[in-house]
């Protein structure tokens, strides 16, 4: 364990009052990952504004992602999540995603990334930038994977400044791109490798699979592996919720130890690519691009790809209507019904998990041993992994509602297993009455119940945004990474 890892672990332990629980999982044995060296021949122009004149329609579509402004707090909307993520940064701040235009702004402002006042300060590793900017593949090409991943998030502030854009999907410095051809490319080596594991090698794929795989730059499940904190996809066994869970269990990976239950937890990211592949659209070759970036006709009569990346219903005649013969209103009603069904089951699972975490806390306080708790904590881990897999994804109710409902159903099974085991442990230690769950009806109450000083977090972030972020932008402009300030 290197010094940085020790410091991060100690900081988390002190900040959350959590002790790392041994013997509930196998010792973490990371699967060795390749580490690509620098590749100076790979040229990436990460500034999106430089392509405005050459591709005005596509650029304007991309710029219109700024119209997706909803940034509602899930913590306030559903305070249960504060308990579910207790001890993890998501408990402090988790917001619904908005347009790609805001990718840099949002990762700077979210409380999860902390308030590093120096380049070496934590708490987050460089990997937390990885989905946010075409500056990331540029830096990986310049420094190699070890040079990129082996740093803190704060050290990347003046280098990673352009939000998700052109060079994330296109070879923007190529002759083909200059001639107006798509020149599709994945420049992140940690994305290319796992695609090969599932027989989707990008270089050999047809245009349909390539277009879909571009979204796997970011819309996937991943974790930060080893001391390097290298972005890694858990696809060695496959892409289903069970296959990825087995991968994590086999290597003993733990994202964090839960502050209440001390369960060894997994945090799902956003497994949209995997869910899409398993669902009806993926099985029928209907890609993310077909639904979210359709071909449209401009006022000049020319057809181009809409880069606004919006809700398919906003361009119904160019998206859903290509396959579905229902009216827009009928299809929206069907989708709304499926979303409600999934949400109802999801909330039932949340309630079970909240109760399980507090019951586990009560069992520890009553004197339960690690061996007595082991099976219950593993069941909590597996149940919440299924909830998180379903909740963290975008559009699962459209992409694969049958898959999501099955995942949630098996999550309820595992939550029931956990609570049954906890009842026995509690009874063994003299507790036969139901464990009371404190009032978590508001985010403030939930933060209090889980030991979060949210105002302290907000004050630190405000100071960071006031003093450090302007320095980052100033340095980026001096390097030519951003256009001159107007």
TrEMBL record:
Residues annotated to bind heme c 2: 166, 169-170, 307
An example molecular function term from Gene Ontology annotations: iron ion binding
Cofactor stoichiometry and binding remark: Binds 1 Ca(2+) ion per monomer.
The keyword Transport belongs to this UniProt entry's keyword annotation: yes
Keywords: Calcium, Electron transport, Heme, Iron, Metal-binding, Oxidoreductase, Periplasm, Signal, Transport
Binding site for heme c 4: 288, 291-292, 399
UniProt binding sites for Ca(2+): 221-222, 267, 269
Residues that, per the record, bind heme c 5: 281, 320, 323-324
Pathway named in the protein's UniProt entry: Nitrogen metabolism; nitrate reduction (assimilation)
Cofactors that this protein relies on: Ca(2+); heme c
UniProt-listed InterPro entries: Cyt_c552, Cyt_c_NO2Rdtase_formate-dep, Multihaem_cyt_sf
Subcellular location: Periplasm
EC id: 1.7.2.2
Pfam family for this entry, one: Cytochrom_C552
UniProt main location, coarse: periplasm
Family, as annotated: Belongs to the cytochrome c-552 family.
Function: Catalyzes the reduction of nitrite to ammonia, consuming six electrons in the process. Has very low activity toward hydroxylamine. Has even lower activity toward sulfite. Sulfite reductase activity is maximal at neutral pH.
The protein's name in its UniProt record: Cytochrome c-552
Underlying gene: nrfA
